[in-house]
Amino acid sequence: MAKTVKIGKSDVVSTPLGLGTNKVGGHNLFPNLIDEQGAEVVRAALDNGIQMLDTAFMYGLGRSEEIIGNVIKDYDRHQIVLATKAAQDPHQELKPNNQPQFLTKAVDDALLRLRTDYIDVFYIHFPDKDTPKYEAIGALEKAKEAGKIRAIGVSNFSLDQIKEANQDNYVDIVEGKYSLIHRDAEQDDFAYLKANDISFVPYEPLALGLLTGKYKDAKAFGEGDWQYDHDSANFSGDRFYQNVAAVEKIRPIADRHNVSVADVFLAWYMANPNISVVIPGARKPEQVVENAKALDLRLSEDEYQLIDETFKG
Ligand SMILES: NC(=O)c1ccc[n+]([C@@H]2O[C@H](COP(=O)([O-])OP(=O)(O)OC[C@H]3O[C@@H](n4cnc5c(N)ncnc54)[C@H](OP(=O)(O)O)[C@@H]3O)[C@@H](O)[C@H]2O)c1
User: Fold this and answer.
1) Which residues are within 8 A (CB) of 300 and not within 5 positions of it... i.e. 6 or more apart?
2) Distance CA 230, CA 232 (A)
3) Nearest to 296 by CA among 92, 17, 8, 18
4) Best residue for ligand 1 mutational test, from 121, 287, 289 (most atoms within 8 Å of Cβ)
5) N or C: where does the chain have the smaller number of CB atoms within 10 Å of the terminal CB?
6) 222-246 pLDDT, tens per residue?
């Protein structure tokens, strides 16, 4: 049986590999997305042993959730772990809103779009400035008591904000930016999360494609490219080439196991005790099939350490 992980203090259990779906219907974030291809991406995940689907209202302002809702009606709902997020308020220019009333309605709206009667993990996508965090979490605790959600999460919260949100011990899971080339969470968050039985899901685990090994030339990136606009420091100059060199140092491990370098990095996250579920995004179903091979990849201790050290330098 495939390895599974338990989410925080909840009874949600998932395979350690999930799917990020910001390119499933996320037309407001990325150009040239095709909805039918997005649906194929979701099907490829569910057909290849992936349980957690990580979506959000923000991905297409509901479109990603709708595409997922349409696909999952053909599958056994109990084999799927649905994770979604809300905070961006369409009535306030998409500024974060954590007011209990807003979050309560956001849960109900997401249930309708996902065509389901429960959501496994519901995250507050971004903190707002004014709402006391325990009040926001209190709204989600009520949704949990009502059986509408099964686990409570926060995303893009600083450690102080996580602590405030967790003052009643209700937070099960945190989603934050983390990859082998963005390692701040190791210093900032991991000790507190572990001590408080809170799971961690890293977003952008493939560093927007850098850790797939497919990029070689910094000149391919500039203003207007979504990767550069998102992370210009790593997609330009010396840093870009340092990243490429680090990935190439790991390529022999991929060759030895007959998998892609992306699979090696995904297996590294899955072997990392600080990480719960890893949710690489995908534009095409073939990428999902390739990434799902990581579920069967076991790195040796030496391989694990080499990857760790290569990306610390
Ligand atoms: N909570 C938050 O605020 C937040 C923020 C960002 C993301 N997220 C979540 O985290 C998920 C993961 O982050 P991400 O998708 O932005 O970045 P990522 O996982 O680092 O990179 C995913 C991208 O890499 C490329 N890729 C994936 N597998 C590949 C393969 N096998 N071969 C070649 N290219 C491959 C695809 O892009 P191309 O084909 O276009 O190159 C894919 O869209 C998102 O989908 C979303 O669910 C959450």
Assistant:
1) none
2) 6
3) 17
4) 287
5) N
6) 999 999 999 999 999 999 999 999 9
Whether 59 is catalytic: yes
Average pLDDT on 2-22 reads 96
Residue 201, Ramachandran bin (φ over 0: left; ψ between -120 and 50: alpha; else beta): beta
Closest CA to ligand 1's atom 18: 204
CA of 108 to the centre of ligand 1 (A): 27
Q: In sequence order, what DSSP letters do the residues of 202-247 get, joined into one string?
A: EESTTGGGGGGT----GGG--TTSHHHHH-TTTTSHHHHHHHHHHH
For residue 227, count CB atoms less than 10 angstroms from its CB and return exposed for 0-12, middle for 13-18, buried for 19 or more: middle
| Band (3; pLDDT cuts 50, 70, 90) | confident
Q: Is residue 131 classed as helix, strand or coil in its secondary structure?
A: coil
Length of the chain: 313
Q: Which domains does the chain have, with CATH numbers?
A: 5-213+260-300 (3.20.20.100)
Give me the residue label for tokens 């995940």.
Answer: 45
